[in-house]
Amino acid sequence: MKDFSELIERIDALTVFRPLRNDEVFSAFYHYLTEPTVSNYADFLEKLYKKNGGYWSRYIKRICFFCENVVVKTASKGMMPTSFVFDALTEDLKTLQRIADLTNEDLAPENATVKPASFSTEEIALGKEYRDYLTHVGQRGYGIFAENAFFRLDGKTIVPVGTPDRVRLSDLIDYETERNAVVKNTLALLKGLPAANALLTGDAGTGKSSTIKAVANEYFSEGLRLVELKKEQLHLLPLVLETLGDNPLKFILFVDDLSFTMDDDDFNALKAVLEGSVAARTENVVIYATSNRRHVVKERFSDREGDEVHRNDAMQELLSLSDRFGLRVSFFKPNKETYLNIVKTLADKAKLTIEEKDLFAQAERFALEQGGRSARLARQFIDSLLAKEE
């Protein structure tokens, strides 16, 4: 039986990268080293296969780069770790380099009656690559933010979105003026310049949400991430801002289809952030909200009752919420010309072979049946044609 005692001791001594011991694959690997049986070896490889198809050195590199540790947090603030922390990092990287270099011959159980499964390894310079990564951590991020663009709140915890929308700016048609206003504001955020909270209003299906998601995808490599909050989660805004405040990345807090009633408890939470309360101020976060209403407050007839002065004050307070967004962009339903241009562009991208006259006639009929023109409807129409071709 192979003796892994020295490697076990080195893993036990991991300090900066100690969080790696909680990783499912790394934990199974360690368990195999302590009990090198055929079953434990198979369990380790099964978990590695599920994660990345069996590429061991790549996996070690990945979990090192995404590990949330004291060194990466210090580097993200533009600071250097203390000398003894740096020494611990150096030793940890030596250990992890040895682990990444392990081959099938190094690890496979001896004298097994059944041929052990295998994995792939390749040469990497982990120490050099990790130190290079630290110099760019402000754009690459760390932990869950290193490889994901879209996030949501699960309870009070920020988690990655399982199946994010991959829409890009190049996928969006027309509405250039509206879209450019959002892009310009986002670039200011990325450059560390004053950026405004933005409210995108207008008709349904005109591309408000798609614009925000496309911007997040477009500038991922420059350090932009998106965290979506439901309206009923707005009371958690102070917690979210506190969590993200020290992160080197830039964040869009995305609230889709925003609207309030007069007695909505979440109104004050958003109002405090938009007004820049002490607890809410952070330079790396903006709020981008969409609404199908010009004013984000739904007024009911019952709201008009009561003392006239107090009622007017309350209504003015609520109806002016949209004015507290520094940037307001309106998306309107496309006219016939714009709608047909979107249809034609999408049809060309999809390589549909259909006469333009017939295409436009069907598109207009589709819009009439659905109750009006919109960018979303144009895409649904093209999808319906593609479905018929299959």
Summarize this, please?
This protein is α/β, with parallel strands linked by helices and 390 residues long.
What does this structure look like?
The protein has 390 residues and is an alpha/beta fold. It has three domains: 5-143, no CATH class; 150-331, Rossmann fold (3-Layer(aba) Sandwich); 336-389. It has 17 helices and nine strands. It has helices at 5-12, 24-34, 38-52, 56-65, 70-76, 83-100, 104-107, 126-135, 137-140, 176-190, 208-218, 237-244, 266-274, 308-319, 336-349, 356-370, 375-389, and strands spanning 150-154, 157-160, 198-202, 224-228, 250-255, 260-261, 285-291, 297-298, 327-331. The chain has a seven-stranded mixed sheet. A two-stranded parallel sheet has the order 6-8. Helix 2 (24-34) runs antiparallel to helix 3, helix 15 (336-349) crosses helix 16 and helix 15 (336-349) packs parallel to helix 17 (375-389). The protein is globular and about 75 Å long.
Main features:
Rossmann fold, single chain, alpha/beta, globular, 17 helices, 390 residues, two-stranded parallel sheet
